[in-house]
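Sample entry (309 residues):
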Amino acid sequence: MDGIQTILKFLMNRKTAIGYSFMALLTVGSERLFSLIAFKCPCSNENFIYGLVFLFAPAWVLLVIGYFMNSRMWKLFTGCCLNPRKIFPKGNSCRFFYVFGQITLNVLIAPVMWLSVALLNGTFYECAMSGLKYPGYLNTLCNNKSVRCWEELNKVACGKTTMSSSESEELKLTLQAQSQVLGWCIIVTTALLSLLTTCCARCQSKISHLQMKFWRIYIEKEREQLEQLFQLYSTKLSERNLMSFFENKEPDAFPMPTFKAWEDASQLYSFNSSEQHYSTLHRLVEDGKKDISEERETMLDFVGGRERV
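Predicted structure, serialized as tokens:
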């Protein structure tokens, strides 16, 4: 039993890395599936548009899905049409761009993975760029090649060109090499930007490393218990209502938070270094459900890259 608990604890502590690894495997599998089943390069003047659609359309879909599945996204925008101050609070009009930027950085992980894998494979890029008619690009690619290179470049991806096999193979390898170089550039640039943004955020943090570790654990536990309580109280409330309906009697009193309390608890958390509150709920409970100030010292909507409740 101790061994199993140790393994489970290790997996729980590494669930972010495991999640990213699973996402990477899923991206690789999806890209291979698209390449083998759905993708058929037309080898015509439509190559450029067709290749770009397969290269960027899935990335765009992953971006939209990421926004839909991000809970902080809906905390930020829910009710903002009725109360614009929610996203543009008084005294901190840049709050929206700060929070939305953090959300976007998290959401971009899946699209960047797709672009990196697709470019490293080279199939979509090869089809797209073989249909590009830009003279400067053609002069560079077809330098020291036969005249047929300018005329039949769009057929190289399908192997239907009348050029010599060595020349056709050289063009294919060149296109694939360009694609892979772009893929590695995206990977290196993303890794470097991630490191720099994390370092900048940590350097400017007003929270110590140990406190941030405690904060991270607290947020995770609060989220888990909040979901459990949602299940418990919704079950109790539905049972009370059903019993009252079928037994034709007055319902028992069932205390519930007010609309104002729900609204306050649903706000994105704003950290204030003068108060040791670790979430919106924590501050709401400690302050006795008083009005939450719109002006805060530091805007922190996540700890260690994890979503906040």
